[in-house]
Amino acid sequence: MTARFTVLGNVEVLLKGRPLAIGHLRQRGVLAALLVDANRTVSVDQLADRVWADRPPQRFRSSLYSYLSRLRQALNQAGTTGAHIDRRPGGYLLAVDASVVDLHRFRDLVAQARAAQDGGPAAVLYDQALAQWQAEAFAGLDTPWFNALREALARERHAIELDRDEIALRQGRHGELLAALTTRADAHPLDERLAGQLMRALHGAGRTADALAHYRHLRERLADELGVDPGSTLQELHQQILTGDLPLAPPRTPPAAAPPVPRQLPASPGVFTGRDEELDRLTKALGATAAGGHGGTVVISAIGGIGGIGKTWLAVRWAHENAHRFPDGQLYVNLRGFDPTAPPMPPPTAIRGFLDTLGADPDSIPPDPDARAALYRSLVAERRLLVVLDNARDADQIRPLLPGSPSCTVLVTSRSRLTALVATHGAEPLLLDVLGRDAAHRLLVSHLGVPRVAGEPDAVDALLDHCAGLPLALGIVAARAATHPDVPLADLAAELSRAADRLDALDAGDLTASLRAACEASYQALAPAAATLFALLGLAPGPDISLAAAASLAALPEARTRLLLAELEAAHLVRQDLPGRYRTHDLIRLYAAEAARRQSGQDVEDALDRLVDFHLHTAFAANRLLDGPNTPFMVQPEPPAPGCGPLHPADTTAALRWFDVEHACLLAVQSLALDTGRLPHVWQLAWTLISYHQGGYHLAECLAVWQAALTAAERHGDAPVPRALAHWRYGHARALTGDHGEALDHIGLALTVAERTDDIAGQAHICRTLGRVWEQRGDDERALEHALRALALYQRLDNPIWQANQLNAVGWMHAQLGRYAEAQTHCEHALRLYREHGRPVDAASTLDSLGYIAHHTGRHHQAVEYYEQALALFRVHADASNEADTLANLAETHHTLGNEAPARAAWQQALALYEAQSRGSQAERMRSLLSQRPS
Fold first, then answer.
1. 882, burial (CB in 10 Å: exposed 0-12, middle 13-18, buried 19+)
2. What value, to the nearest 5°, has the Cα angle with vertex 575 and ends 572 and 578?
3. What is the model's pLDDT at position 906?
């Protein structure tokens, strides 16, 4: 079988999907240097420059010949790889079929795409070309030649993405491009061609306001940073969007609801050795069942339950090598079973993450944990799917996450043996031990190369003794040695020996002591600024931390923080699994926290102030974009601590994206604030999450943050506003979960506090919520009573938007009771206030209410007008859920009028949206209506 050669990511040779052992990083650099010029002679001097630049070893020719010899042996010993290295006059040539080298395959597919006459085939060829990329090119190789080529290839890839997206825009694929274009625009904020594509996609997807806002932000940034205006092409595009003259391809009809294919696996480890037997055992246990469509469960457990033994790396490596066995995708979650800084992830939270990934509509996700688990099992049924449950605490945490369909395969890692799962679910245990002496030695060789390891055998033996076969400790030591090539290994071994008695907090035996020794030696070797940042990272809760948050934590500029994090990453003390997000292994984080405790107490408190303030003030700014300036009970945080640099998202899309990424960290920071007595931050953080939690239907998290806020308010004493706010929102969260009795109790307490303090606005907001709760309970008369009281209170305040909101609520309740004249009067009044004082989109729900009233009073032509106005606003605001409901209402009105063609079109559009949102009952109703009225 012909091998595949990859440089667009890790430098690897893959035979039957498994990587060949091709040596350490420098030797891989030689192979990469030859692969770039495959089938062309590369001189010895060129190879030396590419691999060593201006720092070649004293006898570099001898080293180069040795590397080439070993590469020849690796290619020959593996059998038929289809490649061989030849000595030629003046240099060396790697003879290989260029189509099996991902770089050359990428360029060949691009050439075919550019030669294609039709947009469809060209788009497919561009997609195939871009699929050759796995990660950043030449991962781990760091010389001027590789760095320059890496940057050039990144620009080449970016240009191809633009060409591919240009075709997609011409095909009308505006909506499906938005996420990728937004991400790339964030990475290339001054690229005008990319900005133009994003503007066209936004406009084509019905988000004209966002398209114009993006142009405005780009124009301001170009002026601030470069002192120039956008180019004429972009200016012309802006004018066309403003005047409605931009020709757009008709949107593609969405295909029948195909479920999204999840690809959640973390990056595969670059250097991996010593686990061939375990990989084979996994393949026998899981591979056969996956190929046959019958799922299995494998538990990976370390002797003694120690972390850092490589459970996750083994699971992720096997999952990547066998991803082809699972065509319906791979789900992954870190259950944080043994995270020293946070409790284990509750199963409903993990399931919620899976449901979001699988495309479930937030409005259809039930709050009950058992019902939520049942929905998850339904969505994965009959799908050939791999589910990786990483770092599980116990069998109770795992059971709700197990699919019910034998078509799925589950891979679990844990520090526990999980014997209960073996007994009750037939899981096959794979007990993962430390690496044997030979495997640990090979791992060091993979990092450091044969000459260096062979040159100091006694020092290597000492390093192996101190690391005790723990892959994490070996990786840390190897990284330290690789980044300090001039330091003898004997010096590193001596440092480890001196630090070997200092890690006693975990009380987990020799393995933990060895890990502490490795951490201590690496910590002491860091530059002072990097060491300080490393220690401060031990204070940060949550699963990871963003670059911006780390900069605030350390009170440093982002550019400086990025350099320090790169130093920590090179020392294997942090990992960057996603661009700009950093995580620390839990055992290393314990050591970092210990290092932080050795610092000045005031320094630690100041750092925590900056970290909490960063999350609070960024969340506050993001929430203002979602809710506008009229949010009830608006909190007023104190100014951020000195050195804190909160972010300010540019628009609602950026705000929602920030909340999505930072949600787990925000919850952890709120817990930290409660634990450390930063009580105002607790309820203020809860307030910033109101819109995000309700919009995304994160009910469990909503309850949790308001329970914490209530605790903080009670500890704070008699301050009325926090107590009223906490009881109000906690009661509202209870109502959303269906617990109306407790909801009314807490909302009643909130109202009592507001009445005692003569807080008119507070009473109005709380009465408004009481109306909603009574409507949910089915008592429309009681709901109207509270809605009218809220309206009377709002009319005593100088806030026309609050009045408009409540006028619409009163009008809606009158309509539910069949009092359409009163409903019409209130909703029309609300509409006037919105148009005089609010944003256009504020009126969308009122227009929908007026459409409902007009339909039920026989004014069907007017109902159509109202519904169409509401639709336009919902689309501008990307409110697809309300858009679907209004389309369904519009279709019913068209049908009543006898307009069967537009009725059918609206039902079909509603059906497509309901299916995309996984709103099963609504979609089934649309299908039933359509089947009764064949075209």
1. middle
2. 160
3. 93
Distance CA 925, CA 887 (A): 13
Question: Which tokens belong to 32?
Answer: 């990469």
Residue-level pLDDT at 505: 25
- Retrieve residue 810's tokens: 């009163």
In angstroms, what CA-CA distances link 833 with 372, 655, 678, 771, 810? 40, 27, 40, 21, 15
Question: What are the Cα distances from residue 176, in Å, to 783, 841, 884?
Answer: 41, 23, 18
SS3 of 126-158: the string is: HHHHHCCCCCCCCCCCCCHHHHHHHHHHHHHHH
* Strand partners for 431: 301
Question: Does residue 933 sit in helix, strand or coil?
Answer: coil
Q: Which amino acid is at 396?
A: D
**Which residues lie below 8 Å from residue 919, measured CB to CB, with a gap of 6+?**
361, 363, 364, 884
Q: Give the torsion sign (CA, 46, 105, 328, 182).
A: positive
Q: What pLDDT does 918 receive?
A: 65
- Two tokens at 179? 């996420």
- Of 579, 594, 477, the C-alpha closest to 536 is 594
Q: Where are the alpha helices (DSSP H) in 838-899?
A: 844-856, 860-876, 880-897
What whole-number distance in Å separates Cα of residue 791 and Cα of residue 776? 19
Answer for the pair 295, 380: CB distance below 8 angstroms, yes or no. no
Q: According to the model, what pLDDT value does residue 63 have?
A: 81
Note the pLDDT of residue 510: 37
Residue 15 contacts by C-beta under 8 Å, 6 or more apart in sequence?
1, 3, 4, 78, 79, 81
Q: Which residues contact 533 (CB under 8 A, 6 or more apart)?
A: 550, 553, 554, 556, 561, 564, 565, 568
Task: Reduce the DSSP state of residue 186 to 3 states and report it.
Answer: helix
Chunk the chain into consecutive blocks of 10 residues (it has 935) and report each block's average pLDDT, rounded to whole numbers: 81 79 85 90 88 75 83 72 81 88 89 75 84 86 88 90 87 80 85 90 82 88 87 88 74 54 82 79 68 48 53 88 87 83 84 87 78 88 89 87 86 80 76 82 86 90 82 80 84 70 34 55 82 94 94 96 88 82 81 85 93 97 83 87 95 89 95 95 95 78 94 87 92 88 92 91 94 91 95 93 94 94 95 86 89 95 94 76 89 93 91 77 88 74
Given a contact cutoff of 8 angstroms between Cβ atoms, the answer to whether 582 and 571 are in contact is no
Residues 6+ apart with CB under 8 A from 118: none
pLDDT score of 256: 46
User: Would you say 176 and 70 are in contact if contact means Cβ atoms under 8 Å apart?
Assistant: no
User: Distance between CA atoms of 909 and 206, rounded to whole angstroms?
Assistant: 14
User: What's the rounded Cα separation, in Å, for the pair 15 and 360?
Assistant: 38
Kindly write down the DSSP assignment for every residue of 583-627, as one continuous string: E--HHHHHHHHHHHHTS-HHHHHHHHHHHHHHHHHHHHHHHHHHH
